[in-house]
Amino acid sequence: MKKTLIHGGILCTMAGENDIFTGDVLVEDGKISQVAPAITAEDAEVIDATGYYVMPGLIDAHTHIGLFDFNSDKSVDDANEMTDPVSAAMDARYSFNIKARELKVAYEHGITTMLFTPGSGDVFCGQPFVAKTYGDNIFDMTVKAPAAVKIALGGNPKNTFGDLNRLPMTRMGVAHVLWETFHKAKEYLDKKEKGEKQDYDANMEAIIPALRGEIPCKIHCTQYDMLTAIEVAKAYGVRFSLEHAWGASDYLEEIVESGCDICYGPIATYRAPGERRRVDVEAVKMLDDRGVNVAIITDSPILSEESLYHHMGEAVREGLAQERVIRMVTINPATQLGLEDRLGSLEAGKDADIILVKGKLGLDTDARVHLTMINGQVVYQR
Fold first, then answer.
1. Residues of the chain with pLDDT under 50
2. Are 220 and 152 in contact, with CB atoms under 8 Å apart?
3. Which CATH code for domain 1-56+345-382?
4. Distance between CA 230 and CA 282 in Å, rounded?
5. Torsion angle defined by CA atoms of residues 209, 215, 221 and 222, in that order, rounded to the nearest 10 degrees
6. Of 28, 143, 253, 289, which one's alpha carbon is 20 to 30 angstroms from that of 260?
7. Which helix (H) or strand (E) holds 104?
8. Cα–Cα distance between 289 and 293 in angstroms, integer?
9. What is the pLDDT of residue 243?
10. 10 Å Cβ neighbour count for 202?
């Protein structure tokens, strides 16, 4: 049994009250076995963490890396099917490029887990999955699949199919596809549960776990489409998160009442006419103050993985305490993904995804990750 003792660091456990203290973390066989002010483990390899912040590995809950990389060669751009507005059955793992250079960038910057999602070219875009950022086989790296049903509202799908002069060409067309598909999926599920004979439909099968509450819907939307997303999700009783969520400050009450989660970002994106004109960073604090589970995302490769630090800093500048911001890249996204029993905090029994940081992420511009551990293995060390 391999044991590693991380000794004498400033622990940011994200495990509740009094979750920052100087102490030790004992790792055994890829799992955290003990967290305490002092641990004795004579047969353990010791990592001296004196002067470092010891934190759970960071989680980016919305990325596209490995699926496209802005390469001019379309043979490696595999995030969007875009042959039918309903492509819910598409499993993103089968598009994933395990050699994507951004994976190394991610774990070198302390990001140990990511949700990899299809793009937003369809209305029902496919099945995202959650995986660790280090490994050589995406199926072995996968933590949860499917992790959600990816849905897109607004400009992306209407532009895709508008260019083809077919439904949906407008926001009302996108909403129609959304309502109609959920209606069909509910009918399909009802017949399935009654044992009635019907033709197999892979897209309907992919939506069933969301209707049963087993996985959430991750809904790409901005201020133009939030009420549509909330209305449809409420009608079918699905758990959901609003992805990107620019303009959320216009709908604070509706968001709180809906009980949805928020994946906000990218924060550092450019402001432009159209859907990005309301990059209202202040919404992150407003929502957090109201008890909404907020995660900060990069949408990489739209913005690079290392920009997550800048995103955290923007949230701090809006008045959020550093600890609250750290929660938005650790335990908050873990909870959104239904993986809080494995990820997001330094607690006994959880995966040993741990980072050592010199400086305060979100506050110090020179803060840097000096060591990254994934599943108990040191995968990066400065």
1. none
2. yes
3. 2.30.40.10
4. 21
5. 150
6. 143
7. helix 102-108
8. 10
9. 97
10. 10
Both tokens of residue 315? 């949230």
Answer whether 1-56+345-382 and 58-343 agree in fold.
no
Residue among 155, 145, 148 nearest 125 (CA): 148
Phi and psi, residue 264, nearest 5° = -95, 130
Structure tokens, 8 = 């004498």
Do 85 and 164 contact (CB within 8 A), yes or no?
A: no
Q: Which residues contact 17 (CB under 8 A, 6 or more apart)?
A: none
d(CA 279, CA 157): 21
Q: 139 in helix, strand or coil? A: helix
| Burial class (CB within 10 angstroms; exposed 0-12, middle 13-18, buried 19+) of 320 | buried
Distance CA 36, CA 202 (A): 48
Specify the DSSP class assigned to residue 171.
Answer: H
Beta bridge partners of 360: none
Show me where the domains of the chain are located: 1-56+345-382, 58-343
Q: What is the CA radius of gyration of the chain?
A: 21
Name the CATH superfamily for 58-343. Answer: Metal-dependent hydrolases (3.20.20.140)
Whether omega for the bond prior to residue 37 falls within 30 degrees of 0, making it cis, is no
Report the alpha-carbon distance of residue 144 to residue 146 in Å, rounded: 6
Q: How many residues does the chain have?
A: 382
Range list of β-strands (E), the chain: 3-12, 20-28, 31-36, 45-48, 53-56, 58-63, 111-116, 124-126, 129-132, 142-144, 149-152, 217-221, 240-244, 261-264, 294-296, 354-358, 368-374, 377-381
Buried b (16+ CB within 10 A) or exposed e, 132-153: bbbbeebeebbbbbbbbbbbbb
Express each pLDDT in 285-324 by its tens digit: 999 999 999 999 999 988 888 889 989 998 998 899 999 9
Show the tokens assigned to 342.
Answer: 């494995």
Q: Which long-range contacts (CB under 8 A, 24 or more apart) does 136-143 make?
A: 136/98, 137/98, 138/66, 138/93, 138/96, 138/98, 139/93, 142/93, 143/113, 143/339, 143/342, 143/343
Is pTM, for the whole model, over 0.85? yes
The sheet that has 240-244: what strands, in order across it?
124-126, 149-152, 217-221, 240-244, 261-264, 294-296
Task: Please check whether residue 128 is in contact with residue 146, taking contact to mean a CB–CB distance below 8 angstroms.
Answer: yes
